[in-house]
Design a protein that fits this description.
alpha/beta, Nucleotidyltransferase, domain 5, DNA Binding (I), subunit A, eight-stranded mixed beta sheet, 12 helices, 20 strands, 23% strand
Length: 423
């Protein structure tokens, strides 16, 4: 069950997405041509007046590392995507650039007067690693508007209560009322421990919240002292200290202790970007689009009620009010943010000194990140051209890079800052 195919007419106006079989017939009969590979889009060779367009919904499940997208038409998921962000890579590059800059300032170079220190950040400022998440989400919403008739955007506006995570004993009217009390802590633990038992590693079974250091022996209810365990491991551990329970498994003990101390950075990033994403999608209301939001607890309730597995794109499809939902696709597009490449004239080593010259792009008509088809094997992969040789690096997802001569490659998708694949 593949994603539906996007269709635009000869005037570049979006039409209803169609089933892959129908798209294949149009291509075979020469009534359409391939307009774009990722996401796969065909263009008709004539203009079509179609007043009976079926509007679609875009549903989004924002996350710290992954964002799920789902295109819904008449309670059917016809297209899905998972977007992997590169916020961590951006943060590392900024730190590397800062280290090189400080190194230059400390060397015996010309004196530069320091800038004034009372510089004020603009309202709504976000760090580059977080702003990247908002902008990439906006980019893909714009693309979907180009290829499909959209009339509604629904986004999950989740808010993690970090104060409650650190101190679940906090009380108040907002914590005592409602049937969804405690969902925030449980959801965070499920994400933190990978939805599996911390002691035996079993998945797809009921899990219980377990105190690493027993509460009967002074263990706190802070999230750093909580993990997930199956019923068998929870009863077997009982009120033993984790050191005694895992004394024969020192490696597992070290892993659990290290993972328990992980900070709430993913939670903080979601909290920091949720308002920015909501403000961004409200700008589409000028195009006649309705904007709605949903909660994380509502998404989980819908997914469990419908019996769907835990996936980012399925969570996106379950955002908001859902009564019935049919999955017309089970092969979402996997998109990984790779960036547009740097502008450095020379690559630096860890000490900040240049080690090689970076040639200008494109190289022999190719850019790093172009997706090409290997004419010898028929597979698709990313190309990394070389300025000193006609043999390029050709990388297929999940395989080691090989050398392929440029004459044996044909470009199918120009570099746009993303890598593509399917599950």
């Amino acid at each position: 069950m593949q994603n539906f195919v996007f269709v635009i007419d000869g005037d570049f106006k979006p039409l209803n997405p169609i089933h892959p079989r129908r798209a294949r017939r149009l291509l075979d009969k020469k009534k359409a041509a391939v307009f774009r590979i990722y996401p796969f889009t065909i263009i008709l060779k004539t203009s079509v007046y179609n007043p009976f367009l079926t509007p679609c919904q875009i549903k989004i499940d924002p996350g710290s590392k992954f964002t799920g997208f789902a295109l819904i038409r008449e309670n059917q998921v016809i297209w899905a995507m998972e977007l992997e962000h590169r916020g961590g890579a951006i943060k590392k590059k900024l730190e590397s650039r800062r280290a090189a800059r400080r190194n230059r300032r400390n060397r015996n170079t010309r004196y530069r007067k320091p800038r004034f220190l009372n510089r004020k950040l603009p309202e709504g400022w976000l760090p580059p690693s977080l702003k990247h998440r908002v902008r990439t989400t906006d980019t893909w919403i714009m693309r979907l508007f180009t290829y499909a008739p959209i009339n509604e955007i629904i986004v999950e506006r989740v808010k993690f209560d970090t104060q409650k995570m650190q101190n679940p004993e906090i009380w108040g009217e907002e914590y005592q009322q409602g049937t969804l009390q405690g969902y925030e802590v449980r959801e965070y633990l499920l994400e933190k421990w990978g939805r599996k038992c911390a002691y035996c590693g079993k998945q797809n079974i009921p899990l219980q919240v377990e105190h690493i250091h027993p509460s009967s022996k002074g263990g706190s209810d802070r999230v750093s002292n909580l993990c997930l365990a199956c019923q068998k491991c929870n009863q077997k551990k009982s009120n033993q200290p984790v050191e005694d329970f895992l004394k024969e498994k020192p490696d597992l003990l070290r892993t659990i202790k290290a993972q328990a101390k992980q900070p709430l950075k993913d939670t903080a990033s979601v909290n920091a970007t949720r308002n920015a994403i909501l403000y961004m999608i409200t700008e589409y209301e000028g195009l006649g689009t309705v904007t709605k939001t949903g909660t994380g607890a509502q998404t989980k309730y819908n997914r469990i009620k419908l019996g769907f597995p835990k996936e980012h794109w399925i969570d996106a499809a379950c955002v908001g009010e859902v009564e019935i939902l049919e999955l017309k696709t089970k092969q979402p597009l996997r998109v990984t943010c790779k960036g547009q490449g740097g502008r450095q004239k020379a690559a630096l080593n860890k000490y900040g000194y240049p080690i090689r010259h970076n040639p200008l792009r494109p190289i022999k008509g190719w850019c790093s990140g172009d997706i090409a088809k290997n004419l010898l094997s028929g597979v698709f992969g990313r190309v990394n051209p070389r300025s000193s040789s006609n043999s390029f690096n050709f990388t297929v997802p999940g395989m080691k890079a090989i050398n392929v001569h440029g004459k044996n490659l044909t470009r199918v998708h120009m570099k746009d800052g993303y890598a593509y694949g399917f599950y």
